[in-house]
Write a structure and sequence with these properties.
By secondary structure, the protein is α+β, with helices and mostly antiparallel strands. The chain has helices spanning 3-36, 42-56, 68-71, 317-323, 346-358, 376-398, 422-428; strands at residues 84-85, 116-121, 135-137, 142-146, 153-164, 173-182, 193-199, 215-221, 227-233, 242-245, 259-266, 269-274, 277-282, 295-312, 326-329, 364-369, 405-411, 430-435. It has two domains: 103-312, Jelly Rolls (Sandwich), CATH 2.60.120; 317-435, OmpA-like domain (60s Ribosomal Protein L30, Chain: A).
């Protein structure tokens, strides 16, 4: 054995001792944290930390250190299950994905989003670690990424509020959707959260109090995961407020799990969906014509929020397709850079399938469109694959004759709005049905 080989063996041996010692030191630190923590789920974080050491000496747990902000619920939530990242590049395509829910699981889902998107927020325009530009707060919040779910998220922890800075111009009929992940609160366990839709009094104020503004609808998730709701109208003698609790254990939210929430407002009626379940339906939530909601906010707890979509107008799908010859829909959803139809598209697909099945002689072209993010060639391919996936779901899940459907994709080549904001990009991400 020559001297060079001997030196190489010695170096490898010393490196292995160094890695082992580092792992043992970090193991001791983790165990100490577990012993001192109220939340016994930190064991899961310990396992993830050790796995990261073995696979790359902690590369997967890349975080920048913070002091007071971390202690008050900033990035570093201990080891609660979701790892928060301030370096967006650290996540890449390596983050594990939540198991895809099948479309058929939403077979009773009748939610159909509004026709025109007027507000969309995925925090893609904000730097990780910053407070989001389109929002205001009486406390704090920051944009983060996670090791479990793609994209940017607004994370807040504490007894404060985060609200849309500009007032919303909402008509009688509109829909609000968002994704939410309940996370660890200031007390160590799941913090719960509030979502509030209300009519503000002061445009530049957070309108404090238990029943802020002129009127409001509040959807809350307790620290136990139980959902509840409250409606109120201030300044009216008659007690028109409604309250209720969702006591089904299967509908309790869980820490570090993502939920899709959809709110459908039709004049005085308010419906709320959690995943595939309609859990609130109030026919007379606001029986006063003067109530006009103009702001949303998230408050009092701990959660991460993204993909907020507000759209107005009930889509007249039949008239658009059969009379005008073209139906543009924003109610068919895909994850970023994916071609799998998300299950919350069920209500829209069901309506389109009903129209197609009632007129069996009509042929239709399904055309996918993307925004301008990414390479032109990749977007073209993605739009074509998405159109094909829509056809597959219409055929397999709704019994539409596939011989009547052809597909195509235009990528980013036919925008309907400039690709200069999340809201405009959302307008360009669409699926069109063209009568042939």
């Amino acid at each position: 054995m020559n001297s060079a080989i001997k030196i190489m063996i010695a170096v490898v041996f010393l490196l292995s001792l160094s890695v082992t010692a580092t792992a043992q030191i970090k193991l001791k630190d983790k165990v100490k944290k577990v012993e001192n923590s109220v939340d016994n789920r930190t064991d899961q974080g310990l396992e993830r930390g050790l796995d990261a050491i073995q696979s790359g000496l902690g590369k997967a747990l890349k975080k920048k250190d913070k002091t007071d902000e971390a202690q008050q619920g900033g990035e570093n939530q201990g080891d609660a299950g979701v790892s928060y990242q301030t370096d967006q590049a650290a996540m890449g395509d390596q983050a594990p994905q939540q198991e895809q829910t099948s479309l058929q699981a939403y077979s009773k889902y009748d939610f159909i989003p509004g026709e025109k998107v007027i507000f969309y927020e995925d925090f893609s325009q904000d730097a990780v670690g910053d407070f989001p530009a389109l929002w205001n707060t009486n406390g704090s919040a920051e944009v983060v990424t996670t090791n479990l779910y793609p994209g940017n998220w607004m994370k807040f922890v504490g007894t404060h509020c985060v609200w849309t800075d500009e007032l919303l111009k909402l008509p009688d009929n509109y829909t609000i959707e968002f994704d939410v992940i309940p996370i660890t609160g200031e007390e160590g366990g799941m913090g719960g959260y509030y979502f509030r839709l209300y009519q503000c009094i002061n445009e530049r104020s957070w309108d404090g109090g238990a029943v802020p503004g002129k009127a409001g609808f509040n959807f809350a998730v307790e620290y136990t995961g139980r959902p509840n709701y409250r409606t109120y109208i201030n300044g009216i003698e008659d007690d028109l407020g409604l309250t209720g609790y969702i006591n089904d254990d299967d509908l309790k939210q869980k820490q570090d799990q993502k939920y899709h929430i959809a709110v459908w407002v039709q004049k005085s009626r308010v419906r709320l969906y959690q995943e595939q379940n309609k859990i609130i339906d109030l026919p007379k939530a606001f029986p006063v014509a003067s109530v006009k909601m103009d702001r949303i906010r998230f408050e009092y707890g701990a959660a991460m929020i993204s993909n907020i979509r507000i759209a107005v107008g009930a889509p007249d799908m039949r008239n658009k397709l059969m009379t005008e010859g073209k139906l543009v829909t924003y109610g068919i959803y895909f994850d970023v850079n994916k071609d799998v139809v998300k299950p919350e598209s069920y209500g829209t697909l069901k309506e389109i399938a009903a129209i197609l099945n009632e007129v069996p002689d009509v042929q239709v072209k399904i055309v996918g469109h993307t925004d301008a993010d990414g390479a032109d060639v990749a977007n073209l391919d993605l739009s074509q694959r998405r159109a094909a996936s829509v056809k597959t779901e219409l055929v397999n899940s709704f019994g539409v004759n596939g011989d009547r459907l052809v597909t195509d994709g235009m990528g980013e080549t036919q925008p309907v709005a400039p690709n200069d904001s999340p809201a405009n990009k959302a307008l360009n991400r669409r699926v069109e049905f063209i009568k042939l």
